[in-house]
Amino acid sequence: MALEASLAALSIAAVSAENATPLKTLVFKPKTAKTATPVPIVVLALTSTSTPSGLIASSANAKEPRLAKEEIFQEFFQTTAKEFSVANLNKENAAKVSILIDSNISESEVYEVSTESSKAALNGKDILGYLKSLEVELTTVDFSSAPAPAPASESKQAAKTKTAKDTSAHLEGAEKIGITIDKNLDFPGWYQQILTKGEMLEYYDVSGCYIMRPGSYAVWEEIQDYFNGAIKKMGVKNAYFPMFVSQRVLEKEKDHIEGFAPEVAWVTKAGSSDLEEHIAIRPTSETVMYPYYAKWIQSHRDLPLKLNQWNSVVRWEFKHPQPFLRTREFLWQEGHTAHLSFEEADAEVLQILDHYESIYHDLLAVPVVKGKKTEKEKFAGGLYTTTVEGYIPATGRGIQGATSHCLGQNFSKMFNISVESPEGADKPKLFAWQNSWGLSTRVIGVMVMIHSDNKGLVIPPRVAQTQAVVIPVGITNKTTKEQADAIYDGAKAVENQLLAAGIRAVGDYRANYSPGWKFSDWELKGTPIRLELGPKDLEAQSVTVVRRNDSAKFQVKIADLDAEIPKILDQLHDDLFNKAKESFDTHRVIVEDWKDFVPALNAKNVILSPWCGVMECEEDIKDSSAKKNDGSEEEVDEKAPSMGAKSLCIPFNQPELKEGTKCVKCGEKAINYTMFGRSY
Amino acid sequence: MALEASLAALSIAAVSAENATPLKTLVFKPKTAKTATPVPIVVLALTSTSTPSGLIASSANAKEPRLAKEEIFQEFFQTTAKEFSVANLNKENAAKVSILIDSNISESEVYEVSTESSKAALNGKDILGYLKSLEVELTTVDFSSAPAPAPASESKQAAKTKTAKDTSAHLEGAEKIGITIDKNLDFPGWYQQILTKGEMLEYYDVSGCYIMRPGSYAVWEEIQDYFNGAIKKMGVKNAYFPMFVSQRVLEKEKDHIEGFAPEVAWVTKAGSSDLEEHIAIRPTSETVMYPYYAKWIQSHRDLPLKLNQWNSVVRWEFKHPQPFLRTREFLWQEGHTAHLSFEEADAEVLQILDHYESIYHDLLAVPVVKGKKTEKEKFAGGLYTTTVEGYIPATGRGIQGATSHCLGQNFSKMFNISVESPEGADKPKLFAWQNSWGLSTRVIGVMVMIHSDNKGLVIPPRVAQTQAVVIPVGITNKTTKEQADAIYDGAKAVENQLLAAGIRAVGDYRANYSPGWKFSDWELKGTPIRLELGPKDLEAQSVTVVRRNDSAKFQVKIADLDAEIPKILDQLHDDLFNKAKESFDTHRVIVEDWKDFVPALNAKNVILSPWCGVMECEEDIKDSSAKKNDGSEEEVDEKAPSMGAKSLCIPFNQPELKEGTKCVKCGEKAINYTMFGRSY
């Protein structure tokens, strides 16, 4: 029975969801005496959950479970492995198997259940409700509590527990290097794997939340240092406002909160007491801050007021979470300033945007395009929004990098942030002109997606926790103790020399790992360069420097390291940036005719098109590009999302708009070139 | 009718509460036509809430309300102004007045209602319930939304709205300088006033939460810089773990969570959906982190693991909140490390404690005593706790400064943080030795309470947002424009010179304020030194430097500023430290006989006594010192809390314990000198 038919039979209604979380249904056969009938184990888990066989064994109280072969599917479920899903369970066969359920599956989310031939989005509530209706024991398993396999054995382990479905994206020889998923074939799987194996991030027990390990937090600290320096020069001061906001205050400004309301997390209990008034966790701090701006700003001499805070905000999204890009709690900075004049506010918006551009270009080696958001995409309640927009080559999607908003006087009028006119109390009072601007840990995800590869992370040198690793090499059975000591001492001396020169260097002197293993380990973590020191290097008083991004090698005299290593790191930065820029530049195409629009999108481009500036036309572009308007029935790329194109920004840097140019969609007069794309 | 009798008549039961939040009941008379009967306005508010008459007028829809005179109290309530409280309201008189209630008053808190002759602690629920039973309209007012009066007029305004009760602590001539409450007479009122008027902190709409304004956040940033530098040298890395923890995981370790459970804030809703599992906001991160430590630590080569995070934690205490000292959300750092051996963990505990001492001594100019906590006071679930303990001279109370815990193997055994023995897989596995250590924004409160005075804040120079303010002086009606310009230019040049020398300097060139007003303004904010530049200074090419802490003046040649200002700031730091140290030293007295114990406490001392080390004896000391064991019926100092003395620590630096010394309380053999005191 096909999936749809099975679901219909079970009265499970399919729902529509752009971003349902994919589920997998795996079947394992435990080791069973030949004379006995096996009790297969059915595991229902998020596709992103790794399900080590050890944990399956202990949870199902079974021996050595292995992925079941075709016969098991036929015998127990009367279907094929390819067409099997949770919908094939019924009271009869469920009584003959063990059922394990991933604890990450919750009633409140939407999931995608798929077989090879079809798929459906279903409410978690319906799935779990159906399983309960089977009247058999269900075991919920917290797979995240499983100990990670040790480095040496982990890739084999991972390879063993892969489902057949993953094989297509499986890297040849991957066992040696840790990363087993090909960036080009399974981008989401690859992304998750390099983040976790590269020790940037750990999946967490609460869905949508992640642990930022030192490898990613160090990137954030470099960004903080840079940005603090830049804004303090502008007279911005750091402060800290509470994470809580009362329901009454949060809901004061209806229009603004409307967009956030479905995602607000509410504290309703403390200890065992119910709170009389529910307290929200800030999704952003406009309503937290502005009542106090109104209090503090009494005279034009209190302006400008420029505050920034580094904090976490919570947006309890029900869409499929993605590390760094869509998380329920995330770190960011939010600046909120108030000015006496529009001109001053207006100028600051662009100064901040320049700093954001600089974080991308000069720290993360990621090219971005500066521009203004359309009316449809601007910050709700603001006057206008400026943005830096990036591009992810692997998916051909645009991504918003950071935004700097001019709020105009909308908020100051709502919150009464006003001063007497400097010209006298008899003149009308003046409402402040306000800005707000924010950049989040999303930047780290963008950086990783763009530079990293099938060997692991590639971290640009200026934000890398470790910029250079020193590894002793060339020690064999024939090496004498004196020679070995000399190599280790030499490596240690090189490490110290680099540290003294201000390079974030580490020496890897672990005795029981081979140099090759160490190379892979540091490549996995994305360390920009490694310095190898062996007998010949020592003799020549030089080291071999190898770049992470392209394996280019250089011999550098030890005496020249202080001068050369910073140059090599800068060159590496520039090369990463230029490579990414070339990719963005070649995939940012000008499209004048609508017939070329969707094919260009499908070819992983973002698009610059002449546009009329009308909101309805923008919505039409999104709707029309979501369908397969190129006439073909099949998508060009299986992984390309079928979502429509949104406007990303109206770039400041505009192609020349010739007299009489028509809007790409509606044919009315075009007013500018706007950048459109599928996006995150 | 006396307060107690009134309450009894109303069936409002008094409750016991160490730290009930004080309430005030104010009565206002609006402007009323002479022929009409006035409708007085009764305002029930937190004593800490400022209740501007403008807001009272608009809330009660009345004209120009003024504090009511004696006749109104007699006419409407048949009592005196001094004896009036909420308990004097009844259905009859309530119908003749307007009643405004501070929105900060909540059902779940305990309040102190007082008249001149008596006071009682009552449940908010009972108070609000009683008011509702009056069957009249009650208007709830959010006084925090009121605009603050502008600086020039604010002290007068504040003075006007003061109740008679405040007069005793009222500073003479205070209108000129902003602070109107005497540190020695009303310490809590003074503390609140210097924090808010000094622009360190703002009271927030959600009770127990406060806004850290740049003046206090800058202190925190200096501490972060120092501490990051210190721990990174030790190999500690920063990371960020989520603020949420699932109920299941939080409650995994019952003993540990027991102490936190009543204070845990629970998220139960997102948008309009009820969450299936309630999610806690971390009160501390042991249970957040350690499941992942178990995952990451697989081999002895993964040890030591040393992570730290800068974050906020939430403890929803129902006791009276106090800025920085007891807040529902607070910022801190929490370090969590795991080691292979006890020796390594043990050594780190003390290294960290040294860094904490250094933050107090070298940054905040606050003396602390290092020591070990008793078994009763140590961190629940840990092996032992070390601490730095401070002393607040104004109240004679001790205060815990920061703690560094050795957790032993208790948590590692619960969370299975273990490795194979380096001696072989056949040997028993080894559980990690763990530490955790934390320092919070409480340090800022301690610093403020110790150094500041009746002119406002005194901020030690190494953590001051602004270290030096440059103020042009001596410009009169007779000054020519050229002379004035020369003075302003000279001041600006001095400011730039200081900035170039790395001093955090600001020039105050506001034209419409007098130098005297500016002096007071910067004194209020606690800026360590001001530099005055007038015509004579300019002629002599020197500036007048005035120290905030003691008004000491120096003439410094402009050419010598780069060298002299750092010296002056360092000397100021040392003087602040030495003054505080002298106070701590002279109020840390050795008491050998129990009869001297409570009198010494009442004389605002902390006490070093020989002690037996038995937990029951410690509890006995607390109980016995809470009563008036000195035989007198009256407290020595009205403000001295009647709470019992807790053990603060067993100082590392011990007086010589002579053979045969007996415990100060129980008379058994003493094992050390322990420091006891009333405390925060």
UniProtKB/TrEMBL annotation, chains A, B:
Gene Ontology molecular-function annotations: aminoacyl-tRNA deacylase activity; ATP binding; proline-tRNA ligase activity
GO process annotations (BP): prolyl-tRNA aminoacylation
Range of residues in the leader sequence: 1-17
Assigned GO CC terms: aminoacyl-tRNA synthetase multienzyme complex; cytoplasm
InterPro entries reported in the protein's UniProt record: aa-tRNA-synt_IIb, aa-tRNA-synth_II, aa-tRNA-synth_II/BPL/LPL, Anticodon-bd, Anticodon-bd_dom_sf, Pro-tRNA-ligase_IIa, Pro-tRNA-ligase_IIa_arc-type, Pro-tRNA_ligase_II_C
Enzymatic reactions: tRNA(Pro) + L-proline + ATP = L-prolyl-tRNA(Pro) + AMP + diphosphate
Renumbered residue ranges of the record's region Disordered: 146-165, 623-642
Biased composition annotated in UniProt, kind: Low complexity: 146-161
Enzyme class, spelled out: ligase
PROSITE patterns: AA_TRNA_LIGASE_II
Keyword set, alphabetical order: Aminoacyl-tRNA synthetase, ATP-binding, Ligase, Nucleotide-binding, Protein biosynthesis, Signal
Alphabetical list of Pfam families matching this protein: HGTP_anticodon, ProRS-C_1, tRNA-synt_2b
Domain Aminoacyl-transfer RNA synthetases class-II family profile: start-end pairs: 217-460
CDD domains: ProRS_anticodon_zinc (cd00862), ProRS_core_arch_euk (cd00778)
UniProt EC number: 6.1.1.15
Entry keyword Aminoacyl-tRNA synthetase: yes
HAMAP family the UniProt entry points to: Pro_tRNA_synth_type3
Family: Belongs to the class-II aminoacyl-tRNA synthetase family.
Protein name per Swiss-Prot or TrEMBL: proline--tRNA ligase
Organism of derivation: Wickerhamomyces pijperi
